[in-house]
Structures are given as structure tokens and as C-alpha cells.
Automatic annotation (TrEMBL):
This is Cobalt-precorrin-2 C(20)-methyltransferase. The lineage of its organism: Bacteria, Bacillati, Bacillota, Negativicutes, Veillonellales. Transmembrane segments: none annotated. InterPro entries: 4pyrrol_Mease, 4pyrrol_Methylase_sf, 4pyrrole_Mease_sub1, 4pyrrole_Mease_sub2, CobI/CbiL, CobI/CbiL/CobIJ_dom. It is an enzyme of class 2 (transferase).
Length: 235
């Protein structure tokens, strides 16, 4: 009997934001795969899912190299594929945990592509995204009426971000931990900084909330899990 792979979004931080289906499947899993980089120990996604994990389940950390070298990265992906397939070929129920939603800026998407044509069944369980959690947490409407929402990774080229924010009414800006100064500058340029909000590690015990980003120091150190919601003030 062949095993089945489940991609499960655990949400942004609060274990109770996991769906009922996600919690059930985590509790039934034979194997839980937790992605990690070689430089980092522990797993936020695993901590979130931990209330639902049972004693019989084996936790398997798998390294996904976050490097620019294509050969090293490909070697890491193929090793991850080998590990996952070894459990699926044994007929195991394998869960791959990911923060937020599995199909939204997630490592899981690459795993899905590696496994999808191997003959094994795959089921993907959606999760609450960080920006949806932030909007609800702060009472901050993300988009309404005929407004246009842009979702932008801050790692994109500055010119591309500038062009997108020039036409958007509302914006979700992800991955702002490395270049907050450039993002802040672009938000100010497009009159979107005054009413912007940002949360680092939403739903986790060390959550940080920033309201109004126009006067924040440019060298503010941010956690990797930081997301901005912004609205154009003149619309």
C-alpha cells in the first residue's frame, strides 16, 4: 500500500487557528516532516502543531538549503525527495508542516512539485495566512468595495515594488525583515505609510505590533516573520 503526503498550513502562530481537518490529520500522522535550514534549529511550524501531535508520530527534520548555488540547492531538494519517498513507499501517512498557507510563499510548493508525479496521493490543507490574521487581530480591514489589493514580497526589485504600489489601493508586504528602509521609503512616497501596520510573529508570545510606519527608524531590526498591511491615504 502506498502512503499519502499531506501538506498542512498551520497558520501564523496561534495553534487554535489551525483548521479542524489539519489538527485531525496531524494527530493521525505516522511521520511529520519539518523543514529547516542548516543554520537554524527548531521549527515554529512544529511548535504550533505540537498540541495535536501524538506519541506514535515520528518527527523528521529535513534540511532545505537556502543558498544561491543551484547545484547545492538541487542536491538538497533531491535528498528531501528521497527521504519523503522512502516513507511514502512504506505506506506511511506523511505530513509536511508549513507556516501560513501551503500555497502561499511556502517551501511546501517545491515539495509538492517533487512528489506530484511519483504516483503517490497528495492532499493539501489550507491554513490562515499571516496577513489575514493581522487584519482580524487589529481590526484592520485589508481590502473593501472596489479597492485593488497588491501582495508584494519586499525581496522583489525596488522598481517593481514602486510600480505596484503606484496603482494599488491597499497592500500586503511580506518578507520585510531585510530591507525595511527601502519598503518604508516607498510607502511614504505613495502616501501609504501613515496608516500602515506591521506585526512580527503574529499570534506568538513575543509578538510585536507597529502602528504607523512613517516615523520608524530605518535601521529597525525585524524578525523574519514580519508583515505589513498598508492603505493609500488619499483614496
Amino acid at each position: 500500500m502506498k502512503g499519502k503526503l499531506y501538506g498542512i498550513g498551520v497558520g501564523p502562530g496561534d495553534s487554535e487557528l489551525m483548521t479542524v481537518k489539519a489538527a485531525r490529520i496531524v494527530g493521525e500522522a505516522d511521520i511529520i516532516i519539518t523543514p529547516k535550514t542548516e543554520k537554524k534549529d527548531g521549527s515554529v511550524a512544529l511548535n504550533i502543531a505540537s498540541p495535536y501531535i501524538q506519541e506514535h508520530t515520528e518527527i523528521v527534520p529535513v534540511v532545505f538549503p537556502m543558498v544561491l548555488d543551484d547545484a547545492t540547492q538541487e542536491e538538497g531538494w533531491q535528498e528531501a525527495k528521497r527521504i519523503i519517498l522512502s516513507y511514502l513507499d512504506q505506506g506511511k501517512s506523511v505530513v509536511f508542516l508549513t507556516l501560513g498557507d501551503p500555497m502561499f510563499y511556502s517551501t511546501y510548493m517545491y515539495v509538492y512539485r517533487l512528489i506530484e508525479n511519483t504516483g503517490h496521493e497528495i492532499e493539501t490543507i489550507p491554513g490562515v495566512t499571516a496577513f489575514c490574521a493581522i487584519g482580524s487581530h487589529l481590526g484592520y480591514p485589508i481590502v473593501e468595495k472596489e479597492e485593488v489589493l497588491a501582495i508584494v514580497p519586499a525581496t522583489a526589485p525596488k522598481e517593481k515594488i514602486d510600480a505596484v504600489l503606484a496603482v494599488a489601493d491597499d497592500a500586503v508586504i511580506m518578507k520585510v525583515y531585510k530591507n525595511f528602509d527601502e519598503v518604508q521609503e516607498t510607502l511614504i512616497k505613495h502616501n501609504m505609510a501613515d496608516d500602515a501596520v506591521m506585526i512580527s510573529r503574529v499570534g506568538l508570545p513575543d509578538e510585536q505590533v507597529f502602528v504607523g510606519l512613517d516615523n520608524m527608524p530605518k535601521d529597525t531590526k525585524l524578525n523574519y516573520l514580519s508583515t505589513i498591511l498598508a492603505k493609500r491615504k488619499d483614496r
